[in-house]
Specification:
Length: 336
Amino acid sequence: MEKPIQAMTAVTDAFSGKQTAKPTSPFAPQYITFVYIPSIILIAGTALLKASWTPLAFAIAAALGGFQFYANQERKVLDPTTFQEFPLAVKTEISHNTAIYRFSLPSKSSILGLPIGQHISLAANLDVTDPKTSEVVNKEVVRSYTPITSDATAPGYFDVLIKSYPQGNISRHLQTLKIGDKMKVKGPKGAMVYTPNMVRRFGMIAGGTGITPMLQIVKAVLRGRSKGDQTEIDLIFANVDEKDILLRADIDSLVDEDTKFRVHYVLNNPPEKWRGGVGFVTADMMKEHFPAPAKDIKILICGPPPMVGAMKKATESLGYEKARPVSKLEDMVFCF
């Protein structure tokens, strides 16, 4: 397990939006330093010492340069039909029942290949109780999660933020993993694929770990500002207690960074002098913080099933289109 300071640094880096992916331009500084300059020196030196060996020098330079370019190409590893196993590299506990699990990909240049807005499946063979017979049986259990890292910021690994629940088979299994233990992963999955400026404004409602797909999209929007992404985002983030607000420092730093991203925290049990919302998320809260229904507005919802059901009814009461049982990309109200 990482030391606390190192762990929080790793978490912050994952949300910082720093471009750590492999360079794709042939004129990237590392190619100039490690490919072009050495090749010129090799060819020029060979031509001066023994001109007849110059073609061989060209061949060697081309081979070394080709290897460098190949080694630095990003490789997508996700398979939508077949589970693959990836080892646990780091476990970062951020509360008594919540941790960030970092899994290593096959190489430092590997990426998941996960479109923004989609998720992955984690699977394990576990002993579970059959609800029909009450007998304990061993079977493959599968659950969906959204990484808190993206292809743009985390080549070589991916992080998932997971809260363990008493009845959560996969989340409890993850708690038992040791460094080096492997988890089965498959994807991408999901109907949501974010593209820049797909809507004028998002209204997001998240409960607990339902924050993860929201932050995936938020970070993509903020990364795209320099390329013209003007999307505005209003997030209502609901939790029971203040200590339950996951990654609050990271979220607040994003708010400070971008005036078009706004957050309204809601707590069931607020502390004294709490300035956010109190109780459950209501239609009145949405009306206050979200834009009025329009074709270029989209409401995103992710959280516990009872919350999702209540939010569907609340959005409909405000005039948004009725949410479907299974959301599609074009829906005004999309539930993860």
